Amino acid sequence: MLPWVEKYRPRKLDEIIGQTSAIKEIREWIEKVKSKKSKKALLLYGPPGTGKTSAAHAIANELEFDVVEINASEVSAGEKLKSIISNLGALSLFGKGRLIIIDEADALSSSEAREIARLAEKLVSVCPIVITVNDMYRNVPPEIRRISEPVKFNRLRWTTIRSVLASIARNEGVSVSMDVLKEIAVNASGDLRAAINDLQAICQGSMELASEIGRLIGQRDVEKGIFDLLKAVLISERCGYSKAVLRSLNQDPRFVFRWIEENLPLFYKEPKALRSAYDALSRADLFFKRASETGRMGLLAYSIDMMTFGVCTSKTQKPTGWVKFRFPDIIRKRSATKEARKEAKEIALMLAKKLHISSSKVIEEIFPIIKGDIKRKGLILEHISHEIGVPKERLKEIIG
Amino acid sequence: MNDGGDRMSYELWVEKYRPRKLDDMVDQEEVVEALKGFVKSGSIPHLLFAGPPGTGKTTAALALANEIYGQEDLVQANYLELNASDERGIETIRTKIKDFAKTAPAGGAPYKIIHLDEADHLTPQAQHALRRIMEMYSSSTRFILACNYSSRIIEPIQSRTAVFRFLPLPESAIKDRLRYIAEKEGVVVSDGGLDAIVYVSEGDLRRAINTLQTVSVVGKEIDKNLVFKMAGLARPEKGERMIRAAYKENFLQARELLRELMLEDGVSGEDLIKQIYREISTSDEFSDPEKAKLISYIGEVDFRLALGLHPDVQLGFLLAQILELGSTG
Cα separation of B182 and B12, whole Å? Predict the structure, then answer.
């Protein structure tokens, strides 16, 4: 079965949503290509999942050209381009034009990128080239920037993403509530591809994801299951039973783990019991890691036993009184900051090279300096922006 | 007001004040002498620099390259620096090394130098691969590997390298350096402020300099309070409060403080466990047997954090231990 991202990939420029000005600039470039006036490659840049690759292929469709795609993940992109150049004369006999797409050019090594830029420079007058990158400023050598006309793709608004998701869901005949669609759309941070993948995963039952936003999808079902489990672990004294409840729950154990951890101290008031239960939880954490590190999934059983059976048997008295179960806060906080953390890491990597330290040290030790400086005179910010070639405003957004 | 400090404060001090020559290095006399010997003789073996963070390993490697190649452009062309914790595995390292090593040394230099930092971040298998790479290019390339603990480097590599141990810097040397920089930058640091910077940077000179600059961005007169407020590390008081809350049987409050420290103040689990260790070792509230028991748990938790377990869960466990001690003590 075709992944939905492929199935619903736009084939024409007009089908690409949320990039009006980019599409306009692309059309102007196409006109120049048609009238043989274009001297430059087209450089499509922007965050993942905003339509760059789709646009590149759509351009070929509009021009009715064949596509020669060079992907940075290939072993020697430079070699491939060379052989294309040497074959160009022969191929043009067939009459149909060709469009070269260099996808994800920022994944090329810098020497490769320079090589490609050099070749592309020769090629661009005979054969149109479209290059896609995520970040204009990072790993895109000046040689490539020099030969190309940049077109920016923007992060999509969540409302735009939600409307696409809604129409896909309709088309697939699945019913997903608007709340869930919103949750997916917001969580995708402007990346439509990620959102569509998430939607498909949810509709076709990926546990991890479903559980993360499980509080929205058929909220009552998920919560009822979790509440039953929490009762079995934290209140009941029939501990053997708690294992069975978890097994029948059909939930990612990591998600369940967070629920147990969140609610444990609300129920276990006796220090000895709480200590022993936390010991069990910390071991569940340890065993889980061991299972994933060694790839021996059999080890998961011990982890699951510790978080249910181990916690359950730690209680010294039956909890009394009625307490409301709490949703684990940490899950929501973590996913909200995911995208931001990724961008910070990228900036840190650039600075790490200049400062002869690792990116994690940059985040730990250098970011606080910049953060303070941003609030004051911004002199260091200015200097760094110049050094790594990232605009000040962008740095402020990411670090500040 | 004298505005002299601001005039030059656009650079990062850790680079601005990095010694360019071996002779300018802070402390590490023995290492420096031996490295100067290499420079004089014109040939170096593969080197392994072992020592705690911020004791001069990277600086020594750069200074060595400066002195061997003599001019900036030759250093640029012949010196490659990689950080094992940032490269996505041995294949990336191999590719980068190969790309770099396959051309002849530039400007008539006898060999190129590859400096691989945090080499102890590589798995043993990756280190074996590295060993083969080192051998493959040994005619044209010298390796300088840096690590915190030489014991985490496999024997075959250790035996092929000259091992240099970088000793922890004495507190006085760190303070002298900080005073020197502060004076150059027009910043006034009180003795208490210096003590606080040394405390939060744990003998790591690089971190101490970064801490000094972090604090200086906010104020040109630095005392203990400002350091603790700004240093990214939690003010000891908050960590102390967390421990006390657990000890006084208020677990929920202790866990709330823990989450606040981690999620809002951005303190890493590693920093937090070190702080807890310090607090407990020096606290009057725990008896010696209690301390011994807790330290054994702290050691276990610290190790688990190194394995990549969830810091909030593991530290929660530690708080629960303290809770139980408090209730029985």
Answer: 13
Residue type, B152: R
Contacts of A231 (CB under 8 A, 6+ apart): none
- Residue B233, pLDDT score: 52
Spatial contact of B161 and B51, defined as CB atoms under 8 Å apart? no
Cα distance between residue A316 and residue A274, in whole Å: 9
Specify which residues A306 forms β-bridges with: none
Are residues A360 and B85, on separate chains, in Cβ contact within 8 Å? yes
Does B310 contact chain A (CB < 8 Å)? yes
- How close, in Å, is residue A22 to chain B by CA atoms? 34
CB pairs under 8 A, 24+ apart, for A236-243? A236/A312, A237/A312, A237/A315, A237/A318, A239/A308, A239/A309, A239/A312, A239/A313, A240/A309, A242/A308, A242/A309, A242/A312, A243/A304, A243/A305, A243/A308, A243/A309
Give the ipTM of the model, two decimals please.
Answer: 0.73
CA distance A306 to A302: 6
Q: Can you tell me the distance from the alpha carbon of A132 to that of A54, in angstroms, rounded to the nearest whole number? A: 10
CA–CA min distance A231, chain B (Å): 20
A26: its two tokens? 């692309």
Asked whether the beta carbons of A399 and A374 are under 8 A apart, the reply is yes
State residue A64 phi and psi, 5-degree precision.
55, 45
Q: Residue A388 corresponds to which tokens in the numbers above?
A: 């790594």
DSSP state of A369: H
CB contact under 8 A, B324 and A272: yes
Distance between CA atoms of B178 and B190, rounded to whole angstroms?
Answer: 11
Chain B residue numbers with beta carbons less than 8 Å from the beta carbon of A289 are: 307-309
For residue A259, the SS3 value is helix
Q: Is A115 on the interface with B (CB under 8 A)?
A: no
Closest C-alpha to B14, from A352, A312, A199, A399: A352
Counting every residue, how long is chain B? 329
Sheet containing A66-71, strands listed edge to edge, beginning at the edge strand earlier in sequence: A66-71, A98-103, A129-133, A41-45, A148-152
**Predicted confidence (pLDDT) per residue in A243-297, tens digit:** 888 877 777 788 889 999 999 999 998 999 999 999 999 999 999 988 888 878 8
Query: A311 to each of A142, A264, A298, how far by Cα in Å?
Result: 59, 9, 20
**Considering just the CA atoms, what is the radius of gyration of chain B in Å?**
23
How is residue B172 written in tokens? 């006085």
Q: Does B263 touch chain A (CB under 8 A)?
A: yes
CA–CA separation, B290 and B294 (whole Å): 6
Compute the distance between CA of residue A140 and CA of residue A113 in angstroms, rounded to an integer.
7
Question: Can you tell me the mean pLDDT for B187-206?
Answer: 92
- Cα B202 to Cα B196: distance, rounded to the nearest angstrom: 10
The tokens for A369 are 């300096």
Provide the 3-class DSSP secondary structure of residue B188.
strand
Alpha-carbon distance of A73 to B255, in angstroms, equals 45
Q: Quick: pLDDT tens for A160-182.
A: 999 999 999 888 877 777 877 88
B66 Cβ under 8 Å from any chain A Cβ:
no
